[in-house]
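Action item from last week, closing it out:
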Amino acid sequence: MFQPPGFIDSDHPTFICKLRKAIYDLKQAPRVWYHELRQFLMAAGFQNSHADNSLFVLNTGTTSLYLLVYVDDIILTGNQPALVDQFITQLAQQFSLKDLGSLTYFLGIEVVPHRHGILLSQRRYIQDLLARTNMTGAKPVSTPLPTSPPISLHSGMTLSDPTEYRTIIESLQYLSMTRPHITYAVNKLSQYMHQPSTEHWALVNRILRYLYGTLDERIIIHCNSSISLHAFSDADWAGDKDDYSSTSAYIVYLGRNRISWNSKKQKTITRSSTEAEYRSVAATAAEIKWLCSLLTDLGINLQQAPTIYCDNIGATQLCSNPVFHSRMKHVTIDFQFIRDQVQTGSLRVAHVSSNDQLADALTKSLPRFKF
């Protein structure tokens, strides 16, 4: 470390200043700020969530306050508006803050009140992305990806400058927070960021055309919804024609509300569709276990065990069958993880028809009607 220019002491040229207070924009500043805020909240009676370190909960009988922090942006809500206002005043006495009123915009996500709950949208984010890529007048399409030909690493000619491709893909990754329909497409095209081609670039433009045609699409969070957790788990066995890996996907619902979804390429090659589906169920079970922990921190108790719906009969039976199959020895950790939860009654795995498998759109390209 070196002393800043102009502050060097001629008598002690090797001496440096000791940092006594974190200065804004230093690398360690966000961590120090979080520590300071956390100490204040804990002293005020809040409990730090074990499932999410950025969540703080205050439960005192009939009173509930929830505070979510992202660096220096804070969302505060509760079941008593007067208490929320009182705590904002208390927070302002300790820190310099700006009260923006009711939540309307947070980290690129628009929040719109609705008679059935709230609407979440990234419309402005999409408009900015379309304007930046000169796609505001593009011809809309009904699906993010075509069903054929299959996407490959070696299709098309390699782009001379992949910078724009990578920039747009990164923007689309953030956009999938409120657009589960593009999750698979973004996941697929993210796999070629190291060597994008003209074919991959054309598919990126197709996603932008799809977004232009569905600009007003939103996600609704229903306020009158049951407190039951269920998920749809699916896998596309050996769908990647470059290395024959599979794609896992899940969608988790809290009552009628979609609260979590994911599409991810499996790290290992599976030897059967049952194995691929079983690994997907294991990933879904891990997500549900985390969500159960988060709901517990929020003071919400589930009335019944969560359910995972899988359209593979072999994988469904394997979850509850106590007999360990020799062909599944190499997935023993996943096997024990799911089976223990099923046997204790904390999780249920059920079969669902492939026609009703909602996670299907997150594992492969679908024709327009099915999509």
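Closing note: The longest strand covers residues 257-265.
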